[in-house]
Amino acid sequence: MTPVTQSALAQHIRQVALIDQHVHGCWSTGGDRRRFENALNEANTEPLADFDSGFDTQVGFAVRNHCAAVLGLPKHVEPQQYWERRSQFNETELARLFLAAAGVSNWLVDTGFAEGVTDLAEFGEISGRRAYEVVRLEQVAEQAAQAGGDYPSAFEEILNRRAAGAVGTKSIMAYRGGFDGDLSEPPTTEVRAAAQRWRDEGGGRLHDRVLLRFGLYQALRLGKPLQFHVGFGDRDCDLRKANPLYLLDFLRNSGHTPIVLLHCYPYEREAGYLAQAFNNVYVDGGLTVNHLGARAPAFIARLLELAPFRKILYSSDGFGPAELHFLGAALWRNGIDRVLHGFVEAGDWSEADAIRVVDLIAHHNAARIYRLASGDPRGPISPGG
Amino acid sequence: MTPVTQSALAQHIRQVALIDQHVHGCWSTGGDRRRFENALNEANTEPLADFDSGFDTQVGFAVRNHCAAVLGLPKHVEPQQYWERRSQFNETELARLFLAAAGVSNWLVDTGFAEGVTDLAEFGEISGRRAYEVVRLEQVAEQAAQAGGDYPSAFEEILNRRAAGAVGTKSIMAYRGGFDGDLSEPPTTEVRAAAQRWRDEGGGRLHDRVLLRFGLYQALRLGKPLQFHVGFGDRDCDLRKANPLYLLDFLRNSGHTPIVLLHCYPYEREAGYLAQAFNNVYVDGGLTVNHLGARAPAFIARLLELAPFRKILYSSDGFGPAELHFLGAALWRNGIDRVLHGFVEAGDWSEADAIRVVDLIAHHNAARIYRLASGDPRGPISPGG
Amino acid sequence: MTPVTQSALAQHIRQVALIDQHVHGCWSTGGDRRRFENALNEANTEPLADFDSGFDTQVGFAVRNHCAAVLGLPKHVEPQQYWERRSQFNETELARLFLAAAGVSNWLVDTGFAEGVTDLAEFGEISGRRAYEVVRLEQVAEQAAQAGGDYPSAFEEILNRRAAGAVGTKSIMAYRGGFDGDLSEPPTTEVRAAAQRWRDEGGGRLHDRVLLRFGLYQALRLGKPLQFHVGFGDRDCDLRKANPLYLLDFLRNSGHTPIVLLHCYPYEREAGYLAQAFNNVYVDGGLTVNHLGARAPAFIARLLELAPFRKILYSSDGFGPAELHFLGAALWRNGIDRVLHGFVEAGDWSEADAIRVVDLIAHHNAARIYRLASGDPRGPISPGG
């Protein structure tokens, strides 16, 4: 059904295999429409107000536009019809449909928050593709606090053990006080004292800056890519303090370990600058692409400003409804198509260059820093939707 | 003269009635060209330099483009011709022409600063539509300081009395020190002490943070929508401290009272995020649309990123020359038309959805939070220009 | 080869003479490909990583697009071919080609950092046009420290002497601690004490805030335009503290001396606001245009938001490879063409207005504030590429 006049660039974007370098599990159990609509709102930590609807958002419109076809529905189907059709499947069936349609060859799964969602093994099985772990540093810290013994040693031991089978680490420092303030490596004596206080208080969610900083430097030593939540997330994160420019001194001291700035809205231009400024810094629009829907092309265009093309990655940050794992890919394909065709049609880029940049962002850059094979042994992907 | 092929969306946008949810009076007396040109510059508090012209700006070009027709002139007429034609009317005649042409069914008038402009009653009479009051909190504070007696009681009494006939309140804290710093509710003893100091100093313009914070919580208790000046205004406002992200803690404690972020430039994406993060937060481009002129569509597009569509409002923030009360509407119609047609033509939105979103922003959302009747008893509006 | 249907606006943009109001020298000696690729990365202060290439960036693509023709190559030529062709010329020959092709009538040269590049006289000779000096304040400070004697008097004497033949001054305070913090004029006793400390420490790169502030006020007294590096530069500059909004209090006290905000990314909208807010503030996209390549039109559009049209300037900030001195002009012509044709085609601006705004930005505004003759005695410019 593809028109014969479709450009080589359009065809390439439609079929290119993606490495989704930051994602979470899919829902493992069914739920009601309220749960689904709330999952279309990222920032609000409370249930949506009665007058509101998760469908009346850019991501809601994008679900009805792009996800409908995967369920055999026409584009722009009414919310109620979409919901009824979706309800004819269980979450595992939905995940099989949407994960396959995403055209992703490798999934890099942050396992640090997994309440109500599939674990790594399930995710790999359902997607039919390789799923790799990304280890969350704050979870390692909590495990080290519970382990007892010398905290720094326990942290290091757990991190090394877990990371041996993982491809990278992740920090949610943005949610634990933000990036402003001292991010230097704390002396071990301070780390031990802080761990002692935390254990004495009974552990729980880690907010201590000394221990958070300690974890970052352990991740740098490990050498595997370190992902940072940056910018847009839920309101527990102070968006003002999630500006990646606060990371400047940390980045100056970060050596060669690849550092990946995730999501980045509304700081995607600042993040792109940092990706140019440091050989080891990368940028990824992540979550933002899903939530901008029809505005995702404008965001993707801004990601293509100062960031060198070998420093840009793709992820969906899907969590919960499997629509999001697919939609990230669909909107990214759609958005990069619009932006790059714009460059080519204006005479600014050649089509060959555009195709090459697509490959860099879709999988080459991620394959390089995570040391993944670019192809996938399980056969060609077949994006749908 | 409308082409027969005009889309249903275009036709709808052209005719939809607007609720202008934040506006001021029109000039009540005539003035010279210098006054007019200065009114086309929002940020500068000094007279324009001799080498400059208020016409050589986006808003100046937009006046010559959109307002010219209302005065029977061709588009893009020369500034001198525009000025001469305008001078053939008095300000009341101009207001009648421009307010009618705006296609606004309800005007929500901030009466807190009204030097040289029409009052609420005059505004209602001239516009031929309902004009509702928005009570400025800093003015209530100044009245409470003058009233004598117990300050907190006086404030509460004046606010309740004035607000009984009003639809909402407004804070210009952005102009009185900005949003950074503590915005918690101060204890009554501190309020009394601060009021005493202020009265002892002879009152005057309110800058005391304790009293400003007190006013905000009184407005929250009142429960009617509370508008905040955010971002772009004149240079008395420190734009850096008018970033709405500084409001985070305040919003976390704000309960259910609707809070409306006005203007927002260049923080419209941050404001949209807050509108997603809190059930009671709303966003409105206000003043910005007028001053961006040909760039207003790009701004309106950014307002349609993270903000849920049931959380976006319209206003012109017109003050002084009645052109601005009309131009806000004309540029909004023009901008939303471009943006939504872009979404529809790209296949991202259906036309029916686009029409529905127009209604939400144009009047439904405002009618809901201000508890206004959506229609207007005085008959259909007829936008012109 | 120009199509006969080319608009008057397009033709005007193609031929208009530019005043490049902020530029540096061209390389005076040859170098290897690594040096060239590093010069296409502005932000990184280290050599590019082995996996990276300066060609895989927006500016790299723009070089292959726009500069190739100047060297007789097809558009989008492969990097290796570009490099080989470039290597057939020496740097002076390249500079003659690229400077002539830029269509610049006057070059305003910041001589404060000139390692490995042509000096003012050479630049004038090679370009065949007038080159004027812009005096860097931090260099004057370093000369005053070395001069001995009373520091404030020495600074004033050197500044007045150097500025007599110069058109303006420049501050790189953004690189020396940034704009946040006190920017008031320090008392002379403090200046003397700070100078003494600096001299006692053996001088070197100036970071002392007292002396930096002192220099700014001397420049204001001089009355010639004062340029500020703002925003985007290399990572020695903390981009967060290079936000021009931190200049607010300084600008409030800056009197009538023209102040020019350079580069400004990602704060171009904040800078445009300041240009509206103060009669003496100007904005220029500078360096940013080169580094955004195909995204430069989007940036140029944002520069045309709040800034009055008589307050916007052009510069390339070229340094090193002469490609950059030409490319700034080529990308600016290309970008302003796209943006203004967009306004005209949408019916928002008349073509005559667009042509007039081109002249304002291209040369009229700069000629006015730097007191330059608008035409150039050496005959018409002939932009190429």
From TrEMBL, chains A, B, C:
Any Pfam family: Amidohydro_2
User: Ranges for the Amidohydrolase-related domain?
Assistant: 142-372
| Assigned keywords, A-Z | Hydrolase
According to its UniProt entry, this protein's organism is: Mycobacterium gordonae
GO MF terms listed in the record are: hydrolase activity
What is the protein name stated in its UniProt record? Answer: Amidohydrolase
| InterPro entries in UniProt | Amidohydro-rel (IPR006680), Metal_Hydrolase (IPR032466)
